[in-house]
Design goal:
Layout (H helix, E strand, L loop, with lengths): L21 E6 L4 E3 L7 E10 L5 E6 L4 E5 L5 E3 L9 E3 L8 E9 L2 E12 L3 E6 L5 E8 L4 E4 L8 E4 L5 E6 L9 E7 L5 E6 L11 E4 L9
Parallel strand pairs: 1-9
Antiparallel strand pairs: 2-7, 3-4, 3-8, 4-5, 6-7, 8-9, 10-11, 11-14, 12-15, 13-14, 15-16, 16-17
Amino acid sequence: MSDIPGHLLTHPSPSFSPSGNNRVSATVGNSCVLTCPPKSNITTVTWKISPKVGGLCTLGYRADQNKTDRTNCSDSMNWKFRPDRDPALEIWQVGIDHEGNYACEIVATEGNFHKTYHLTVLVPPRLTMYCDDHGNPVCKATAGKPAAQILWVLESNSTPKEEGHDNGTVTVLSTFTAQSTNVTNTTCIVSHPAGNRSMTIACHPPGKLPFVCSVFKTPFSPLFMY
């Protein structure tokens, strides 16, 4: 790469295998910064991004021309600082389409350097809870990525049902089946890498007590049980 002609070259690159990569995750809607080791006397810096959807994107910098170039990259990603001082890559408002493999390649007087990442995008599920026609509590975690885990504070025979969506998110539905007919308040816990949430609902079987449905939410928690 030291004898680059008068324009910035962005050579095609093979797909990067996630094996051996630095695995990182980011929650959809947040920003994400991927670092590349800063070196003195840089000749060129190239970021090569291979998303799961779409073609190869490249960001390049040439020190001899003090010039940057980009090919097939969206406006949502760019250098975080000046690439000659810090070649970190920043992604604004991470989306599912940003998931994939990222490689930073540096050519400097002290040698060539290469750092790769596999970026996983997390989508927090939307949590809802309601009482079905039989007075059973139902907990629903909609469009999460990866699929959420639904747990019940009290013992239940429930088997969660999953429905996959075209964008890679998954909806999980769980119906609480109580061992005792005396249970009124029931708490559902949704565990997800993007954070935990819980809700409590009061359901009464029809015909035994007046049907009442009330829902109580707990604040979002960044911890997860995976």
